[in-house]
Amino acid sequence: MNTDPRLRLLGTSDASSGMALLNALDETRVIIRTGPDMVGAHTTSLAAFVGLTARLFGDVVVEQPVDLAANWWGVSSTDALLDALHAVRPRPATAPRRGLVVTFGDRVANGDLGVGGDDYTVRLGPEPQPLGAGPVHALGVHAAVCLAVSQLLLAVLEPYGFPGSRCRALRDQPGRLRPHRGA
Length: 183
Fold this sequence. Notes:
alpha/beta, globular
């Protein structure tokens, strides 16, 4: 019996479908791309995204390390956060075969999914999204992060019957948010 905690989150106890879901997650690399606007309170949202995705997907990389504001993990950078999460991360037996690029802010090259917002505005779409200037708590970006994780799960697991709803901006882009080979 597989005791991978991701199975509980995905709501399955069936061994065969559970293994298919885990394999799909393990074969996916999430690449996080940030720009010069990823500072201050926005970085706590980024840390939440790193923490969530690193526990779900086989491989998570941040293209350029980001210094983090005070956070509940007590770490100073995205690299240190990934190290701190090592004990709870999946350990796939094979290298990722496909990837999804998630951007934060609109001062970066395009990816597959853009996250942005500010204290009260949520921005999520198929292209880079702006981050508000001078946020106090960036709760809107935190909400966008949660939606982004749900959209990544749906993009990877929908072929296996995983239920969910695409955000409107992504529904209008058929095939846009699909993992690409050769991550």
